TrEMBL record:
Annotated compartments: Cell inner membrane
CDD domains per record: Alkane-hydroxylase (cd03512)
PANTHER family found in the cross-reference section: ALKANE 1-MONOOXYGENASE 1
Name of the protein in its database record: Alkane 1-monooxygenase
Transmembrane segments: 12-44, 72-92, 104-122, 224-248
Organism: Paragemmobacter ruber
Length: 374
């Protein structure tokens, strides 16, 4: 699989096609407001059916210099998203043809993009070593008022996934509408505690300037001020709408990625190492184009800094597979009875395959096993 020219990378640039759709929705209003959710959730689900699965793997030893066209889409996304957001903040509050609900609808669509694409790209960028890429990740997260996600993801999730210490490992039989408010509170707390603990290990207090929460607050405050300047109080309210929708999109994906998948408790608060079996995966081409291979999630946990085009896929014998791609699975997650009917039998089958000796799952289901690291 060649990676040095533009053509193989082009499918991952499809996200740029969402930008003119949002612009059209702002200019036209009415039925056009449905175009963004239709494009992200339904179009890519249809494309998954048409294009099928991609089960080949790129050579993980591919040199960094051969990934330029893949990296480029993540590097240019912040200026593209930021420019679109600024234009909407200026234009929509002044657009006489848009009613109140239509204005909210435009920013709902903007939030779908800044969540499904923007936060996802920030996730890719925050795992890299380049200062530029990490700053772009911070800017993308600040634009949706979720800067602490970087700390929570790097300092908590990747270390404690599948254990009671990871808030975003969705518990078996926990519906999304219970999961969402829980993680909004717990993720902020766990990220803060992780950063304070790291500072303490270096002999520094929580108020030290090295605490990234100061940077998070400054960037988010700047975004709020910009929204107020560009769109007045209406613009500020609409900015908050798109931020909330983006966060909701992120946590829907978090909910799906590890639902019901727990690491074996070895006793005394110790847990087995993270394995491919502890993430749900999907190999559908189109949704992986949109999500830059996020659905190859097991390999991401194995090699967190591996660039997205090099992420490997696993067989069903090694890692659990979702029946469909993330776009349609997020819709199912919003309807708990549907979600549980689809996923609970799969979790039970996963338990029988990988942990046939465990007969009592109550402590795992309720996150009652000892908290690791204490």
């Amino acid at each position: 699989m060649t990676m040095t020219n533009l053509v193989p990378a082009l499918p991952f640039w499809l996200s740029l096609g969402l930008v003119p759709i949002v612009i059209l929705a702002a200019l036209w209003g009415g039925w056009s407001l449905l175009l963004v959710p239709a494009a992200t959730w339904w179009l890519f689900t249809v494309l998954d059916r048409l294009t099928g699965k991609e089960e080949r793997n790129a050579d993980p030893a591919t040199p960094e210099g051969r990934l330029g066209w893949y990296k480029a889409i993540t590097l240019i996304w912040f200026p593209v998203q930021f420019g679109l957001l600024c234009w909407l903040l200026w234009y929509v509050p002044r657009a006489a043809h848009l009613g109140g609900l239509e204005r909210i609808g435009v920013f709902f669509g903007m939030g779908v993009i800044s969540g499904a694409v923007g936060i996802n790209y920030s996730h890719e960028l925050m795992h890299q070593k380049s200062r530029l890429e990490r700053w772009l990740a911070d800017l993308l997260l600040a634009s949706v008022m979720y800067s602490h996600f970087r700390s929570e993801h790097l300092r908590v999730h990747h270390i404690w996934v599948g254990t009671p210490r990871d808030p975003v490992t969705a518990r078996y039989n926990e519906g999304f509408h219970r999961f969402f408010p829980r993680v909004l509170v717990q993720c902020f707390r766990s990220a803060w505690k992780a950063e304070v603990a790291m500072l303490a290990r270096r002999g520094r207090p929580w108020w030290d300037r090295a605490n990234p929460y100061w940077r998070y607050a400054a960037l988010q405050g700047g975004m709020l001020l910009l929204a107020l300047i560009l769109g007045g109080w209406t613009g500020l309210g609409l900015f908050v709408v798109q931020a909330f929708v983006a966060i909701w999109q992120l946590e829907l994906v978090n909910y799906i990625e590890h639902y019901g998948l727990t690491r074996r408790h070895l006793g005394d608060g110790r847990y087995e190492h993270v394995l491919p079996r502890h993430s749900w995966n999907a190999t559908y081409k189109a949704s992986n184009w949109l999500l830059i291979n996020l659905q190859r999630h097991s390999d991401h946990h194995y090699k967190p800094d591996r660039r997205f085009p090099l992420l490997q896929t696993y067989t069903e014998e090694e890692a659990p597979q979702l029946p469909m791609g993330y776009p349609v699975m997020t819709i199912a997650a919003m309807i708990p009875p549907v979600w549980k009917r689809i996923m609970n039998p799969r979790v039970k089958a996963w338990r029988r395959r990988f942990y046939p000796d465990i007969t009592d799952w109550h402590a795992y289901n309720k996150a009652l096993n000892p908290t690791p690291g204490h």
